[in-house]
């Protein structure tokens, strides 16, 4: 059944999608395209190793989100970046690799959960024009929670001058159909708190239904045309008038849970509003036009927070210094964001957008006039050292107008990998043949179970890998092939444990059907423990290793799970069926379950009124032991003559004398 489901899914994918019957191969087996990039700045400043690493992170995020698996992205000499993509990547993927990353500071207008609009509220008859907040902009349940006011959270801890509170994750009011209308906080929080009880279960909608709901919620005037012109002239970048019908529609349709929307790549218009995702896909935003470019950042660093009195706290912060021009602009922006009006509706925040994705969106509680800002986590969710360091590196990277110069772009072959693959497959075939020969020699007829189980396990592994290649873009690498070869021994080990437990029960005199059930109970515990250890090792190796070793760990873990499934759902039921046949059930000497040859205790009754002699009731083990004792006794030397002092010798002398006297 499982094999039918797996291969049926692959067959459906080959007919109606782009699936194939063969797994996708990684760079070392298929070859691909290699690009060597050199990061350069406009002013010729040298690139640091941290900035190269940040560039690698951005490129890796682009490549992974585009669906290309097993790509190799490394640093060469601390200056160049080598990107190797398996197969034949599309031109769009290559453009993502070549494209430079830009950082922009934009004011936050709306934040919500990562999912698309929920059409259920429109179906319930909710009028978006009457209550815009009633339309859930996200299918994610967290989007219906009450909006959080970052300024309110921080009022008990007034920020010192130059401190930006990083209350990332707070939600603001969803976009209104009337951009000129601002919704008070009470309206934004009152309705969503009741929605979870009204809609306890999620409903799956078709893309057409979601698109229709987004259109109905965005088309404020109902003319069927989405306008991209603000209803009124925006007075600042924080003006809600930037949220046009088209922007609202894009926001409702954006699904940040889809990895394809986390590719980044920039390309956004700095003078227009932006609909974007958080870089980790946990939220989506509507942002106003750019107010500060990343090139206005002079430096960024992370460390422990130091209060005005010079006391060092245990909270990690990120310190930002702007250039002279950037500091003046930042002072104007923070003055507006810190206004009571924006703090009241929760839009006193600015988003740091790197490569088209939001990396942080802290709130502002006071004007920062000196061009030196400090970003800290909220009291409920403070920064860790790693988070603060990562954000500082991202800001430093965005501070440079970095472009990637393509030094070379060439096709790489997989000649060496193909040769190694052939040798690996040959080694696997030899190992498989040896396992079958051992099973025939040791378990005789039970070797049928071993061969059949290996075929089922191999078919499942192949089908699952082909399915993952289609669904997840998985690519089989040479270390992955090594993991599959190792799995042959793991699978055979499970059979050996099971067969030996059955034979132990037969040796103890149980009937064969009872021996199978009791042996399974004992073997099952051992098999579960063994597979659990293998799976744990594979998981640890996968998360701690890098590069091709992760491919080995993945296939090792996958085959361990499949081994357990095959033993439980195929091997054990097959042995139960075989024991009902005459050949195995009556213990034929070639079945591998012959009680006499296994050394089982033989009953005295032979059948038809006949009984076995004591000689016939001996088991093989007892006969071998008797023969060994007889052979040892025959090989031992005759005892030497007893000495005159020996009592036995005296006895013989007396007897002899008596005999002589009798003769006389």
Radius of gyration: 38 Å
Largest sheet: 6 strands, antiparallel
First CA to last CA: what distance?
A: 100 Å
Which oligomeric state applies?
Answer: single chain
- Unreliable sequence segments: 127-163, 165-200, 646-664
**Mean pLDDT reading:** 75
Q: Count the E strands.
A: 19
Q: Sum up the overall morphology in one term.
A: elongated
In helices, the fraction of residues equals: 40-55%
* Class from secondary-structure proportions: alpha+beta
Number of helices: 22
Strand content: 15-25%
Written account of the structure:
Helix content is 46%, strand content 16%. The radius of gyration is 38 Å and the shape is elongated. The strands form five sheets. Strands 5, 7, 8, 9, 12 and 13 form a six-stranded antiparallel β-sheet that branches. A five-stranded mixed β-sheet has the order 10-11-15-6-14. It contains 22 helices and 19 strands. The chain has 664 residues and is of the alpha+beta class.
Summary of the model, kept short:
This protein is α+β, with helices and mostly antiparallel strands and 664 residues long. The chain is built from 22 helices and 19 strands. The chain is elongated.
Write the layout of secondary structure elements.
Blueprint: H1 2-16, E1 24-25, H2 27-30, E2 32-41, H3 49-65, E3 72-76, E4 80-86, H4 91-98, E5 103-112, H5 120-123, H6 150-154, E6 163-166, H7 185-190, H8 195-198, H9 207-218, H10 245-253, E7 274-277, E8 284-287, E9 292-293, E10 297-306, E11 312-322, H11 324-337, H12 340-345, E12 350-354, E13 357-360, E14 363-364, E15 372-377, H13 385-398, E16 402-412, H14 415-443, H15 447-471, E17 475-476, H16 478-507, H17 512-544, H18 548-578, H19 582-585, H20 595-598, E18 605-607, E19 610-611, H21 620-635, H22 647-663
Parallel strand pairs: 1-17, 6-15
Antiparallel strand pairs: 2-4, 2-16, 3-4, 5-8, 5-9, 5-12, 6-14, 7-8, 10-11, 11-15, 12-13, 18-19
